[in-house]
Amino acid sequence: MFGAFDEQVRTRLSELQAIAQSGGFDEAVELMVSSIRNGGVLQAFGTGHSQAFAMEIAGRAGGLIPTHAIALRDTVLMGERPATDLAGGLLERDSNIANELWDLHEFHAEDVFLIASNSGVNGSIVGIALRAKEEGHKVIAVTSLEHTNAVTPKHPSGKRLAEIADVVIDNLAPFGDATVSLGDVADGAQGVMGGAVSSITAAYIAQLLTIGTAATLQADGETPPLYLSANIPGGDEHNDALKARYGERIGSMA
Question: Residue 218 belongs to what domain range?
Answer without folding.
Answer: 2-249
